[in-house]
Structure formats: C-alpha cells, structure tokens
C-alpha cells in the first residue's frame, strides 16, 4: 500500500508519480479507499441580488472509513443523512469542504490533470433511477460507449462496437440490442445498461447509489446477483448505498450506519445486524417488518420520538441524543468518536467494533 500523500499537489509527489500510484494494483484485502474526516457544508444564502451567507447545511460532517479491495461496504441511514453526498464526494463530483479521500494513497480532493483523470476512470458510479439516468435520445451503444470518448486508450475507435457488444453480453443483454433506445427496455434491463456503462472503463471501484430501489423485488434479485457475479469476475470493490436493510445485509461484507452527516457505527454484517451497539442502529433494525408472527411477538420495537433534526442546525455533542432513550448530560457536551468503545477494547466479541456512542451497549434486536 502506498504512503498516504497529503502533498500531491503542493509538490511532494509529481503528476507522473501520482498516476503510477493510481495505476498500481492493490492486493485483495488491502485498503483501496481511505476516507478521513470528510465534510461537505452547502452554504445557505438569503437575498436575490446580494446573496448573504446565513449558515450551512452540514450534509456530511466528519465521515471516516476504509474500503478494502474486493469487498462490498454497505452504507445505510435515513433519507437526508448524507449518503448520496458522500458518494458524490468520493467521485469528486462535489468539492469537499474539508477532509481527505485517499485512493491508493493519493488524496483525490487535491488531484488535477492526468492523475484526476486516471482516478475518474477507476471509480465509477451506478445511479438509482434507471429511467432518468440514461439519455433517451442516445442509442444503448452510444450510452455504453460514451466513456470511450474521454478515455480512447481503453477502446480505440475501430474496436468500440465490439467492446460495447461484449459489455452487453457481460450484463446479460442481447448484443444485438446495440442500436435500441432506452425506452425499448424494461427497468431491470435499463439498470443493466447503467451497470454496463459503469464497467466500460474497467474500473476498480463502483459506487452504487440505491441501484435497485426503483426495481420490483424479483428484478432486484437478478440485478444483485449480476453485481455479485461481476464483482468476482472483475475483482471489483463496491460501495453500496441503500435503504433496504436486508438487501444491504445480503450483499455487504461490512456495513456503515449514517445519522445526520456522521457515521454512527461500522462493522461486519454480523457485528452490525446481530450485535449492534449504537442506539440508532438498534432503532433502525427494530423498525424492519417481520413476517413471522412468532418472531414478531418476541421482538422489542424501539419507537423513536421526535423528528430528525435539521442538518443546518444539528444538536450539540451527539447528534442522535435528541431522539435517544439513553442520552445523558455528557451526550450534549461531548461529541462521541467513532471507535471501539472502551468497555469492549481488547475483547474478542462481536460487540468490539467501531461505534460512536458514549454509552454503547450490545442489544440484539433482530437479524434481518
Ligand atoms: N446541492 C445541495 N445544496 C444544498 N443542500 C443539499 C445539496 N445536496 C444535498 N443537500 C442536503 O444535504 C443533505 C443530505 O443529502 P443527501 O442527498 O446526501 O441525502 P441521502 O442520505 O442520500 O438521502 P436519500 O436517502 O433521500 O437519498 C440533505 O439535507 C439535503 O437537503
Ligand atoms: Mg440519496
């Protein structure tokens, strides 16, 4: 693993060195992406002609995590907690207010030129809505082949048609559909087209922002199976953002739970689903509907009181404290760090994973 470089634009590392680091392979299980204290504050302005700053929406406010080569990291959390903003920051589609995103040791928030282009090729995104994310006036061949205009080195002009047909085949679509338009496909097929486009440049990481939320249940399963197959075939690492906790458990090796711009808890799927220690995760899991009446009778439901506070004016200390049944004075004054809670340090138990709560305690709610 390359050294983390904070100086890649300030002269510490030349562009050629940065590109070489970005193109170098990473061993399976090594960190490929390291996110450190990432922040995105959107300014709130007032006035039409003379815009005055009156505050900021703290959409992402100090998020840190690693993504390891070959794994799937799921990110869950309520609507508006900042999941899509994190995705856009990782793609460098939004400029971070503060913090770093290291891709193979290079801070992508500071890269430019050839090095940024190389990163952009290696990190791709699949979006939620297959109906609006594909240009209706372009043929499927042009949509999937569009990334080759920017990166002709991946597929020279004469080879593009063959390459696009190969990609259609890889995602389970008939290569003869190459001249069709998006409206001639079903939702599931369109999402396959989106995935084919994401794969076109042989990326290493694919960030999937709710890739199956707009699809019906049986098609969801097909797309998820396809994504798992492609992960093995092309050695991909995924960040998988979704609302559906059972889908996230199915596909993820590790899961991060976000609340109001911060990471509340992160761990393996077993640690998070069977041994959650953060009250927010426990409440979130307890809200999952259970079909089995026997299991339903024995489970405890945690009902959260109050609304989600505004990210423009989040609570002091722990952000979850205004809705937390365990909150004490300390929670209003001290921001809990995302770390293995002191009481579990050194213990070989599934509860010993990172949780941002002063009073983290294991509570089995329900396995989904
Ligand atoms: N361009 C923007 N300008 C101002 N505020 C924004 C902008 N983009 C997002 N926000 C705000 O940032 C917060 C986080 O938004 P984000 O889209 O990241 O949430 P999310 O977790 O993806 O939600 P969902 O699950 O509904 O997709 C929200 O309060 C949103 O209103
Ligand atoms: Mg979103």
Number of beta-strand segments: 11
CATH architecture of the largest domain: 3-Layer(aba) Sandwich
User: Which stretches are low in confidence, meaning pLDDT under 50 for 5 or more residues running?
Assistant: none
Determine the CATH superfamily of the largest domain. P-loop containing nucleotide triphosphate hydrolases
Give the mean pLDDT. Answer: 90
The CATH class of the largest domain, by name, is Alpha Beta
- Spatial strand arrangement across the major sheet: 6-7-8-3-9-10-11
Radius of gyration: 22 Å
Span between termini: 35 Å
Family: Belongs to the ABC transporter superfamily.
GO molecular function: ATP binding
InterPro entries: AAA+_ATPase (IPR003593), ABC_transp_ATP-bind (IPR050319), ABC_transporter-like_ATP-bd (IPR003439), ABC_transporter-like_CS (IPR017871), Oligopep_ABC_C (IPR013563), P-loop_NTPase (IPR027417)
Protein name: ABC transporter ATP-binding protein
Brief summary of the model shown:
The protein is 30% helix and 20% strand. It has 13 helices and 11 strands.
Explain this structure to me?
- This protein has 368 residues and is an alpha/beta fold.
- It has 2 domains: 15-45 and 54-252, P-loop containing nucleotide triphosphate hydrolases (Rossmann fold, 3-Layer(aba) Sandwich), CATH 3.40.50.300; 257-355, no CATH class.
- Helices cover 30% and strands 20% of the residues.
- The protein contains 13 helices and 11 strands.
- The chain has helices at residues 15-23, 83-90, 113-122, 140-145, 147-150, 160-170, 187-199, 217-234, 245-251, 269-274, 279-286, 293-298, 329-333, and strands at 31-46, 52-68, 72-76, 98-103, 106-107, 123-126, 205-209, 237-241, 254-259, 262-268, 354-355.
- The strands form 2 sheets. The chain has a 7-stranded mixed beta sheet, with helices on both faces.
- Helix 1 runs parallel beside helix 3 (113-122) and helix 7 packs parallel to helix 8.
- The longest helix is centred in the middle third of the chain and has 18 residues, at 217-234.
- The chain is globular, with a radius of gyration of 22 Å.
- The two termini are 35 Å apart.
- The mean pLDDT is 90.
- The structure holds adenosine-5'-triphosphate and magnesium ion.
- Adenosine-5'-triphosphate (ATP) binds at residues 42, 57, 59, 77, 79-85, 311.
- Residues 33-285 form the ABC transporter domain.
- Keywords: ATP-binding, Nucleotide-binding, Transport.
- InterPro entries: AAA+_ATPase (IPR003593), ABC_transp_ATP-bind (IPR050319), ABC_transporter-like_ATP-bd (IPR003439), ABC_transporter-like_CS (IPR017871), Oligopep_ABC_C (IPR013563), P-loop_NTPase (IPR027417).
- This is ABC transporter ATP-binding protein.
